[in-house]
């Protein structure tokens, strides 16, 4: 639900502060174009000029975009919106769908994973949240974290925050937000996006 996504943006953003070749991770990744020439498919960035004299060329927008910021990379559906925010010691990327949102955070200031999750839950009101442990296998790594179950003004949300440990000491968090059914199951959109991320995610070694 768009209302759910708006609620999160107002509560959280108001208080905190590619293609594979993309260099500036604060800009929306370019859409890929799938070009078929003589039956063979080629993928090129949008805006690239393709000239084939005497050859029939068909073009369509690729189903996914590739995000990379030098530390983590993954593909996501092209229809998801892109937002980027940055403040001192804090960066946030958000990929917004109809019901599902991917969020990625990098925090250099002192802020533990637990305190980060508790801060977010507190903005909904403790009486509206239940926090539980969770984990998910992404790109061959088992990531551990916490799930916030939110019931606010009749709107249900689940937010899975997964810690990505790396040696430089920064707090890195990959989060998935969805509007679940009455049994807590992901939407079809959520399942499709998570499966795409699972298949394509890579980490800096």
Question: How is this structure best described in words?
Answer:
The chain has one domain (2-17, 66-203): 3-Layer(aba) Sandwich (Protein Transport Mog1p, Chain A). It contains 3 helices and 13 strands; from the N terminus they run H-E-E-E-E-E-E-E-E-H-E-E-E-E-H-E. The protein has helices spanning 2-13, 113-124, 188-200, and strands at 32-37, 40-45, 57-61, 64-68, 72-77, 81-87, 90-96, 101-107, 129-138, 141-152, 155-163, 171-178, 202-203. Strand 1 and strand 2 (40-45) form a beta hairpin.
**What is the helix tally?**
3
Structural class: alpha+beta
How many domains in all?
1
Sequence of strands across the biggest β-sheet:
6-7-8-12-11-10-9
Q: Name the helix and strand elements from N-terminus to C-terminus, one letter apiece.
A: HEEEEEEEEHEEEEHE
> What is the β-strand count?
13
Rg of Cα set: 19 Å
Percent helix among the residues?
Answer: 10-25%
Judging from the principal axes of the Cα atoms, what is the shape? globular
Oligomer state of the chains in this structure: single chain
Query: Per CATH, what is the topology?
Result: Protein Transport Mog1p, Chain A
Note the main sheet. 7 strands, antiparallel
Q: Can you identify the CATH class?
A: Alpha Beta
**What share of residues are in beta strands?**
35-45%
Under the CATH scheme, which architecture would be assigned?
3-Layer(aba) Sandwich
Terminal Cα span: 37 Å
| Low-confidence sequence ranges | 1-22
* Mean pLDDT over all positions: 83
